[in-house]
Design goal:
Blueprint (H helix, E strand, L loop, with lengths): L2 H13 L11 H16 L3 H18 L8 H13 L5 H18 L24 H10 L4 H11 L6
């Protein structure tokens, strides 16, 4: 079951606790619902909400206990494991850090552990050109001077032209 379906099912179970055959929600699920409500009040996008709740769930599953019971050292070890063993990307680790920080700051209103998190190295990539024909023409008109040509090309807004 994907995260949006899991969250909808969790919300349904929380609003219908007396339906026979519907399992009661546990402490972790209660915290996730509380966090979900906090994020909705903050106006965060649905995908952000899903990502942040997933980050909390993965952290709790990793240690087998509630995220509010995890020590600063365990949090540090968790991110080292995700970065070094599971090879999380910079984006994935940043989303997890932001989700867990939101949980600490907004949901349980506890001090965010003062751990300096090292994120995965940022890959330096050159921009992808959407229309090489326009750029090639512009490059030819500037005697092949790449830096000036690219800078001038960006200034014209031609990269947005289709």
């Amino acid at each position: 079951m994907n995260e949006p379906q899991r969250l909808k099912q969790l919300q349904h179970r929380s609003t219908n606790p007396t339906i026979e055959g519907v399992p009661q929600i546990d402490a972790l699920e209660q915290m996730q619902l509380r966090m979900l409500g906090d994020m909705q009040l903050q106006g965060l996008a649905e995908r952000t909400q899903e990502s942040y709740v997933r980050a909390i769930r993965k952290l709790a599953e990793h240690y087998g206990k509630g995220p509010d019971q995890i020590s600063d050292e365990e949090l540090r070890e968790y991110f080292l494991y995700r970065m070094n063993v599971q090879k999380w990307s910079r984006v994935t680790s940043t989303i997890a850090i932001c989700g867990i920080k939101f949980f600490y700051d907004q949901t349980i209103k506890e001090r965010w552990p003062e751990i300096r998190f090292v994120r995965a190295r940022h890959d330096k990539k050159i921009p992808v050109m959407s229309d090489t024909g326009i750029f090639g023409t512009h490059l030819a008109q500037n005697d092949g001077r790449l830096y000036a040509s690219y800078r001038d090309f960006r200034a014209t807004g031609a990269e947005n032209h289709r």
